[in-house]
Specification:
This protein is an alpha+beta fold and 101 residues long. It has a single domain, classed as Alpha-Beta Plaits (2-Layer Sandwich). The protein is built from 3 helices and 4 strands. It has a 4-stranded antiparallel beta sheet, covered by helices on one side. Helix 1 packs antiparallel against helix 3. The longest helix is centred in the first third of the chain and has 17 residues. It is globular, with a radius of gyration of 13 Å. The chain starts with a strand and ends with a strand.
């Protein structure tokens, strides 16, 4: 079965303190849904090299055992509560993708 992934790129963040509030709710919701954070750059000290139209702002990659599990975690009540805490000053490109078997 192919794994599922959340891929989030944050081109703009004018309210980093409120983003922390989202993180505090989102982290437990992701874990409860079976997600494992593979990368959170730059907040965990990881490195990034951007090419083309890429940016070096925050990028988060989360792995789930299946695509369906990734979708269910996003739709969960706990994660929906976390989304409410996402500040207006944050621009985010969020996708749920299916991995290759």
């Amino acid at each position: 079965m192919a794994k599922g992934y959340w891929v989030s790129v944050y081109p703009a963040n004018s309210d980093p303190e409120r983003l922390t509030a989202y993180d505090k709710l989102a982290g437990p919701a992701v874990q409860a849904g079976g997600g494992r954070t593979l990368s959170r750059i730059p907040s965990r000290g990881g490195r990034v090299v951007a090419h083309e139209a890429g940016i070096t702002q925050r990028v988060v990659l989360i792995e789930f055992d299946s695509f369906e599990q990734a979708v269910a975690a996003y739709e969960s009540e706990a994660y929906q509560k976390a989304l409410v805490a996402l500040p207006d000053g944050v621009e985010r490109d969020f996708r749920i993708i299916e991995g290759i078997d």
